[in-house]
Write a structure and sequence with these properties.
The protein is an alpha+beta fold. The protein has three helices and seven strands; from the N terminus they run H-H-E-E-H-E-E-E-E-E. The strands form two sheets. It has a four-stranded antiparallel sheet.
């Protein structure tokens, strides 16, 4: 009888822990992921700002040639695509980016490390984020070092 009491108590503690982990998680922030796009295949659009793509037609319009769009694996009923692009006036040695959501707005911070070589080099950062009930708002902070 004592063993079954300990098992029941352990099971109760385990269930409480699982419930607390679910209650404490911020699913809205954790459901974004980086999306790979080839900058050479993209059309030009306003540099150093974010473009929010909300449907397949918008996705295909990003590309110089619709054939470059390839197979899109984004579910635009549930997700949006945020794309930032720019051109560095030096050879890019690294790109560090961070994305966070706060009070309904996505904040993207991008740091471009460049060498002294005077080479114009384009770059692109893209994220798939959960679709929100209102229009997706994005603010960017882009720095060149």
């Amino acid at each position: 009888m004592y063993k079954s009491y300990i098992k029941l108590k352990a099971l109760t503690i385990l269930l409480v822990c699982v419930c607390l982990m679910g209650a404490c998680s911020n699913k809205e922030n954790s459901q974004h992921f980086q999306y790979q796009l080839k900058v050479s295949e993209l059309k030009d659009f306003e540099e150093e700002s974010a473009k929010v793509i909300t449907d397949l037609a918008g996705y295909k319009s990003l590309f110089k040639d619709e054939a470059d769009a390839g197979k899109c694996n984004i579910d635009f009923k549930k997700q949006d695509l945020i794309v930032c692009r720019g051109t560095s006036n030096g050879n890019i040695t690294s790109i560090t980016e961070d994305i966070k959501k706060h009070e309904g707005t996505w904040y993207i911070s991008i740091v471009i490390e460049k060498s002294i070589a005077a080479v114009m080099e384009p770059w692109c950062v893209a994220y798939v984020v959960p679709k929100s009930a209102t229009a997706t708002q994005v603010k960017t902070d882009i720095r060149y070092n």
